[in-house]
Design goal:
Blueprint: E1 2-13, E2 16-27, E3 33-41, H1 43-46, H2 52-66, E4 71-82, E5 85-96, E6 102-110, H3 112-117, H4 121-137
Antiparallel strand pairs: 1-2, 2-3, 3-6, 4-5, 5-6
């Protein structure tokens, strides 16, 4: 998954940097998973990590920490047919944390057999969570 830092916002208090907020976007190569988020860093965490490449890697790590806390929702199930036969099932999902500081949307395809094994909403949400985790971990 490709992470891109969109902005770095520094908070100043009494002439000193008091905190840093990093805003990022992320997408996989096929754009089947896209999202954005932000996170706060202390001054100590920020110092020495000012390079964009370092902040992008921190963004990846922060998202990996957040994924278990995200609320996943299945948005649609699109069953596709080819020549009268089921060819695949596309699942679209959304995920965000309670404060909405991280929000992702994505989709993934299942074969007929995979869909039969994962029909319940809870199973599909867990599958979406696993797929997003795998995408974030992919280099």
């Amino acid at each position: 998954m490709l992470f891109e830092v969109r902005s770095v916002n520094t908070a100043i208090l009494n002439g000193e940097i008091n905190g840093v907020q990093v805003v990022y976007s992320a997408k996989n190569e096929s754009r089947s998973a896209v999202g954005n988020g932000n996170y706060d860093l202390t001054v100590e965490e920020y110092e020495g990590n000012e390079a964009i490449s370092q902040l992008e890697e921190i963004s990846r790590q922060k998202l990996l920490e957040l994924i278990p806390t995200l609320t996943f929702a299945i948005r649609s199930i699109n069953t596709r047919y080819r020549e009268g036969q089921l060819s695949n099932v596309q699942i679209s999902y959304g995920a965000n944390n309670e404060t909405r500081s991280a929000s992702f949307n994505g989709h993934f395809d299942l074969t007929e057999e995979e869909h039969e094994e994962n029909k319940s909403m809870d199973q599909l949400k867990e599958l979406a969570k696993q797929i997003l985790t795998d995408e974030v971990n992919a280099e």
